[in-house]
Amino acid sequence: MADIAARVGISRAAVSLVLRGVGGTSEATKQRVLEAAAELGYRPDSLAAGLRRSRSRTLGVLFALRRPFEVEFVEHLYPLAGHLGYDLLLGPFTAGRRQDEAVDELLRYRCAGLIVVGPDLHARDLEPLAEEVAVVEVGRGVTRGLVDVIRNDDAVGTRQAVDHLVSLGHRDIAYVDGGENPGAQERRSGYRAAMQDHGLAEATRVVPGGYTEDEGARAAHGLLANQPPTAVIAANDLCAIGIIDIALRAGLQVPGQLSVVGYDDSRFGRIPGIDLTSVRQDIPRMAKQALKAVVDRLDRPTHKPKDLVVRPKLVVRSTTSHPSR
Amino acid sequence: MADIAARVGISRAAVSLVLRGVGGTSEATKQRVLEAAAELGYRPDSLAAGLRRSRSRTLGVLFALRRPFEVEFVEHLYPLAGHLGYDLLLGPFTAGRRQDEAVDELLRYRCAGLIVVGPDLHARDLEPLAEEVAVVEVGRGVTRGLVDVIRNDDAVGTRQAVDHLVSLGHRDIAYVDGGENPGAQERRSGYRAAMQDHGLAEATRVVPGGYTEDEGARAAHGLLANQPPTAVIAANDLCAIGIIDIALRAGLQVPGQLSVVGYDDSRFGRIPGIDLTSVRQDIPRMAKQALKAVVDRLDRPTHKPKDLVVRPKLVVRSTTSHPSR
DNA sequence: TTGTATGCGTTATCAT
DNA sequence: ATGATAACGCATACAA
């Protein structure tokens, strides 16, 4: 930047004004600065800029690199953040990287806010963070401290799945659970409540599973071994895919002999050969709201935390049909 | 940091020495500094640190968030980079984010080096970058300028697939192509050459496809419509999964009536119900070498670029068997 | 072993 | 409308 100033013959401050696009400069110098910048191949230094205004224009994103929903969420975040003038700093947690390490790194880079997409972190870990930075949690609804929450109404989602299957004539509807994963608890209780409301409390069956294909496949083995249900709702899409694979291998027709519903409507469910009936979370809307929540909190740090619940929507495809019996 | 210095009653420089773990301080002050740091909840400021030593300890990673191979590669990068004392700055490109935007952002954060995992970028775009930062390219082998290259021997991979199928008795082996994707060209020519070497030039059949399940599924439709082959090699795992789905839906048994080989040995191929025979790229090794290459180049910026080729390995699972006829 | 002084590239404050 | 100057938090060279 000093180079540009020297070349044009003005102060560095003036150059800064032009480059930031704030007013206060004459049109003539503005043009000359822009020209010089292009010629010199100038590239702004986000480090220095962030250092100066202690409140950096960077948002940290915590998520699991392996969960399709979270990845899709992040994808939607990018254009929105860019539009608001924020950079995104990704803090993925994976097998080789603990979550607190990820948080630590983001904080070292002085993120202004934190978007926690995969809240495996317990509320008690998140709460103290909220005093340093703006924190918004996506998925799990533990409103405590100053943490904003954007979440999908998981219970309604599985209820929609049950309603759909019941309307097709199913009664023997099993549920493959998601264990401790984000949202899994609510999905399970939504299933339970819906079954009860339909007078199917007796037919309620919850099988331990998970959010991965592996766990879905394992659950399917047990489920199909004796007295297989006519329909199964999976904790998420990957789990559903694992179930379908096992079912097909076992010679069961899907949906002829077994209807399957997933959750998330992720890209894997949309594979033509799978074409999974699934509960869709409104990711674009949630991403937008999450961003809005962080930015709002940056403006008013002590504002009352919001808890926004977004309604999911069942997308019927070709893994569900009338039961054969 | 100033707070710690004030509290302990020494200079900020001394605190810096302790915190960085370089010698030059007495054990007594060291303890007192560490204590004070913990009490005050001190967190180093990577921005400021990076600004000071212009050569930041940050490596940028360019990759496609949707390609399993690249994501797995990134996962392996984390523990290795951490061990070398580098932070990773992720520059994913997705639907809502062009590649040059991603590059630009990484450069604005003054990354010391760039690891380009998904080299969709053309060599002519990469080359000028290499004069500013250390660049290592993973996947595509276009050694030009000062760009180091770590790549898998794609041609050998598809050759291994062909060899395997031929040894099982297959002769009618088709190939579903990966188009313009990284490595696709080499995989295709490896297939072609291997077929020729086995005297199967006549049976060579390349069908346009891609790196996604969708493209695999579309290719399968055309492929299975008339005169289906007894075996098919897919450009990558996702593509293979798309093919398998269509084949199963069409009533074909896999591998009974159609053997399928994928590429990458990604987690989707390892789904129990899929259990895909696939060509494995040695990701841990490649990740290690890529990191080594960047670090080496940071030490000797003008050193002759290296071009390291890693040998892949066929992993035989249950989607390949003897042909039925 | 410890402290002092200076600079990294930018932005914000104040004065012109 | 524009410019000089200080400050952001840390690392480094050098002096003590």
UniProtKB/TrEMBL annotation, chains A, B:
Please give the InterPro entries that the UniProt record associates with this protein: HTH_LacI (IPR000843), LacI/GalR-like_sensor (IPR046335), Lambda_DNA-bd_dom_sf (IPR010982), Peripla_BP_I (IPR028082)
Q: Name a Pfam family for this protein.
A: Peripla_BP_3
- Alphabetic keyword roster: DNA-binding, Transcription, Transcription regulation
Tell me which residues make up the HTH lacI-type domain.
1-53
The keyword DNA-binding is annotated on this UniProt entry: yes
* Alphabetized GO MF terms: DNA binding
This protein is called LacI family DNA-binding transcriptional regulator
